[in-house]
Specification:
398 residues, alpha/beta, Urease, subunit C, domain 1, TIM Barrel, 2 domains, 10 helices, 26% strand
Length: 398
C-alpha cells in the first residue's frame, strides 16, 4: 500500500473532474491536509505534481452493503476487516459499511467490540460504521436471523459496537418493528427496508416511522400473498417506488436484479434516489474458479454468473452472494442506463453519502475529504486516495 505525506500538498492537473450529479469537465484539484483545498486553481510552490493524462478523477465510491471481498469476511475476525480495507481501494472504493449478518445474538456481544476496534484502525478504505443486516427481519434470505423487534437487544448490539453503527436493515412485517425504527432514527442510524413480504399498510407505517431507504431492492422482496386469484398484490416494492421520500439501492451485476428494474426505479424516483451497492461476499474480486468459504461449502466465481454454490447437493448452483465490486457496478450502469454519466457516478458516491449521513464524502467540492480515484480509460482504478493518502497505485507495466 502506497502512502504520501499528508502535510505535503498534491496538485492533480490535466483531469476530467467528476462532480457527481452535476458535470464532468476539465479541471484541477489541490489536496492538502486530507481535504480538497481548491478546485480549478494554480499549483502552489512545493506541491507534488500529478498529471492525470486527461482521465477521469472522481470522488471515491462508497459501498453501504458489503459482507466481504476476496477471501475476507468482515464479521469473521478483526484481521479480515483490516485486510479487506487494504484490498478495496484497487476497486475505487474509498468508504464502505462492513455488513454484519450472523452475529446478532447476545452470545456474540463479546465479538463485536473486537470487530469495532479493527473498524477504527483500518488503513485503506475508511469504514464509517457497521451496517447490521438484521436481526429484526421477516424473511431469512440466505440465512439471516428473523426475530421480533427487541429494543433491549437493539441497545445491547449498538453498545457492543460503541455506537459505531451507521445502518440497520429491518422488515416492515417483523412484529414490534415500529419502536425499533423509531429508536434507530433517534440515534441517527439509517433503517433500511429489506427481506420483506410486507403489505402496503405495513410498509407505509415503516416509512412514516422513518425507514426511508430499501437495500438490495427487488432481492428478497416477494409479493404479498395473493388474496384474490388473478389480482396482482401490491406491497413493499410499489409503496417504496411511490413515496418520493424513499430511496432504493441495487446490486448492479445483472444477475441479482434485471437492469429493467433499475430503469423502472429511475423513472419513478430520478437518479438522486437510486444507489449502487455490491452486497459482495467471499469471492468478490477474485479470479474465476472455486473458492472456500467459512460456511462449510465452496463457491464458484464465474464471469456473468456471480458466486454460486460449487459443491454437489441440493443447493449446487444457487446464488451464494454477490461477486460484484463497486467499479464493476459503475461499468455495468454505464452500459445499461441512458442518462448522463455524472448522474451514474452520483449513484455510487454522492447519493450514498447523503443517504447515510456521510457529509464529508462523495463530493468533488472545496473542503470535502480528499477521497478520490483517478480512473483509467476502461474505468479501472489507477490511483486511489483516502483522506489525502495515496492508498492504491496501479503497478507499472514493465
Amino acid at each position: 500500500m502506497k502512502t504520501t505525506e499528508k502535510n505535503r500538498p498534491t496538485f492533480i492537473h490535466n483531469v476530467a473532474l467528476v462532480r457527481p450529479g452535476e458535470s464532468i469537465k476539465p479541471g484541477t484539484v489541490l489536496i492538502n491536509d486530507g481535504r480538497i483545498q481548491e478546485l480549478d486553481g494554480n499549483a502552489p510552490e512545493g506541491a507534488q505534481m500529478l498529471d492525470g493524462k486527461g482521465d477521469l478523477l472522481s470522488p471515491g465510491l462508497i459501498d453501504l452493503h458489503t459482507h466481504g471481498i476476496g477471501h475476507f469476511l468482515y464479521e469473521r475476525t478483526p484481521e479480515e476487516i483490516l485486510a479487506a480495507s487494504e484490498m478495496l481501494p484497487q476497486y475505487g472504493t474509498t468508504a464502505a459499511l462492513p455488513t454484519l449478518y450472523r452475529v446478532f445474538d447476545r452470545g456474540s456481544l463479546e465479538h463485536l467490540p473486537r470487530l469495532t476496534a479493527a473498524l477504527l484502525n483500518a488503513k485503506g478504505t475508511r469504514f464509517p460504521g457497521f451496517h447490521m443486516e438484521g436481526p429484526f427481519l421477516a424473511l431469512p434470505g440466505a440465512g439471516a436471523d428473523c426475530i421480533p423487534g427487541d429494543l433491549a437487544l437493539l441497545e445491547d448490539l449498538i453498545s457492543a459496537c460503541s455506537g459505531h453503527v451507521t445502518a440497520m436493515s429491518i422488515s416492515p412485517d417483523t412484529p414490534n418493528i415500529i419502536p425499533v425504527i423509531e429508536r434507530l432514527v433517534e440515534k441517527n442510524i439509517a433503517p433500511l427496508i429489506t427481506h420483506t413480504r410486507a403489505t402496503v399498510d405495513q410498509t407505509c407505517l415503516a416509512i412514516e416511522a422513518g425507514a426511508r431507504h430499501a437495500t438490495h431492492f427487488y432481492d428478497v422482496f416477494p409479493l404479498p400473498a395473493e388474496s384474490d386469484p388473478g389480482v396482482r398484490a401490491c406491497g413493499a416494492v410499489e409503496s417504496l417506488l411511490a413515496d418520493s421520500r424513499c430511496s432504493v439501492d441495487f446490486i448492479a451485476d445483472g444477475i441479482h436484479v434485471h437492469p429493467m428494474a433499475i430503469r423502472c426505479a429511475l423513472a419513478a424516483k430520478g437518479f438522486q434516489k437510486v444507489l449502487l451497492i455490491t452486497d459482495s461476499n467471499i469471492g468478490a474480486g477474485l479470479h474465476e474458479g472455486v473458492h472456500e468459504t467459512p460456511w462449510g461449502f465452496s463457491v464458484r466465481v464465474q464471469e456473468g454468473r456471480a458466486a454460486r454454490v460449487a459443491d454437489a447437493g441440493p443447493k449446487q448452483g444457487t446464488l451464494a452472494g454477490s461477486a460484484l465490486t463497486m467499479d464493476a457496478g459503475i461499468r455495468n450502469l454505464m452500459k445499461w442506463l441512458d442518462i448522463p454519466q455524472e448522474q451514474i457516478w452520483a449513484m455510487g458516491t454522492l447519493n450514498v453519502a447523503e443517504r447515510m449521513g456521510l457529509s464529508d464524502l462523495g463530493r468533488m467540492a472545496t473542503g470535502a475529504s480528499a477521497d478520490l480515484v483517478l480512473w483509467n480509460a476502461d474505468l479501472t482504478a489507477r490511483k486511489t486516495w483516502v483522506d489525502g493518502r495515496l492508498v492504491f497505485e496501479e503497478p507499472a507495466i514493465s
